[in-house]
Amino acid sequence: MTMQKFKTLLPVFVALAIFIVAQIYVVRQVWLQKDEVFALRYRSVSKEAIQEMAAYDPYNGFKKAYYIIDDISQLYIQKSRALVKSEDSALFAQDIRENFTKILVEDQLLSEYLSKYFEKLGLEKKIKPLIYVNYIDLIDIQENIRVYKAPLSELKKQQSDQSILVYTFKSEGNNYIISFDYYIDIANKEKIIFRELSLTLLLSILSFVIISAIYIATMKSYLEEKRLSSLKTDFINNMTHELKTPLSTITVAGKTLKHESVIDDKKKIIETANLIGKQSVHLNELINLILEISMWERTQFQLDKKKISVEELIKDISDNFKNGCGKECNFNEEYNLNGAIADVDILYFTTMINNLLNNAIKYSKNTPEVKLEAYTEDDDIIIKVEDKGIGISRSEQKNIFDKFYRVSTGNIHQSKGLGLGLYYVKKIAEAHGGSVGVSSKKGKGSVFIVSIPKTI
């Protein structure tokens, strides 16, 4: 990608990047909102279930767990009296918290009840209970001993956890007082939220695709218009150069004829007149070419087709080419047409082949090597013009048949050309119901392949 093209596309990339970031932000905010609504829904339903359960079970399914905790609390009270070191007290607190948490999780019926309640309402029934102990007091005969209190960092962790806080329970028995938070994890939570978010995601993706398509179409149209404008500018410059050359020659020749030394010299008058005539013909050819191109744009080709032997016509074209080429090029021919007949316009067909042969000479270094080959393939006649010239890069091959387009490294001769030769070739081939293609490698030469249908 050239720097100019990169600068042109940079605003598009920036705009798309901003749009993508905005869409990601919107989707993330909607996700967070859905997640919050999800948690509120399950928390609300859970509290309804707990209130309903409390009507016949005041322990909310923790009766067995409370009984076990009360029973083993007596043992922990006895152990606490034997504690001396602060390190022992910390280990004791950790042990009692872990054991009480395990009992509360394993010996409770609340989770099972909530699961059934969710299923009845059509909600996800697969849940996992999580219990975080806030504090534990052991009740001695004389006083309460707080053996565990959750540190502030643990409380903050619970508050930011992805689990849903259902309720904070507090229970007091003969030998203990405990406070704990009851959380639940909902199975497939992300999938459920993603399913609810699918419409938002779909709209975001669709809007991105539509905007990207609009950007691409707009930039493609802009770059194409810019390319055509550049080609037209190059064409005007080349055309100006091509027209100025014969006009300048004619102007100089006209002034020459006015010199007294020339007026009395018949030989010089004839030479000057011939020069004027030659340049006039060249000028007329350029003008006719432009008029023909303009006519092709407005109307279809008006071909005067005739059934002819393609091999005979190609041989006539190659003979004339060899005479014009002389000893300045190595020209080879190979024909295997077996008398194939085709409906062709002799004038246009000749122009098409001559354009390819002249290009082979024009874009060759040193002594040109040109090969003209023709053969039949199924129902088509294939004509190849091969050279060992400068070649055409892959990036430029797709454009060489466009009107006014010229390969950037093609100015190796004095004549710049108008960028119409290959365009002319393509138009003529298509007018005959055929096609033209190219196979080339930079610095290795090119092969132009024309295909036209043969008459069966």
Write structural notes for this entry:
By secondary structure, the chain is of the alpha+beta class. It has helices spanning 3-54, 63-81, 86-106, 110-120, 152-160, 189-256, 260-263, 266-298, 310-325, 346-362, 394-397, 421-431; strands spanning 127-139, 144-149, 164-172, 176-186, 306-309, 330-336, 341-344, 369-377, 380-387, 435-441, 445-453. The strands form 3 sheets. Strands 6-8-9-11-10 form a 5-stranded mixed sheet, with helices on one face.
Question: What would a concise description of this structure say?
Answer:
This protein has twelve helices and eleven strands.
Q: Give the beta-strand count.
A: 11
Tally of separate domains: 3
Return residue spans where pLDDT drops below 50 for at least 5 consecutive residues. 410-415
The total count of helices amounts to 12
What level of helicity do the residues show?
A: 55-70%
Oligomer: single chain
Please identify the structural class as seen in this structure: alpha+beta
Instruction: Please give the radius of gyration in angstroms.
Output: 46 Å
Main sheet characteristics: 5 strands, mixed
Distance from first to last alpha carbon: 48 Å
Mean pLDDT: 81
- List SSEs in N-to-C order: HHHHEEHEEHHHEHEEHEEHHEE
C-alpha geometry: rod-shaped
List the strand order in the largest sheet: 6-8-9-11-10
Approximately what portion of the residues adopt beta-strand conformation?
A: 15-25%
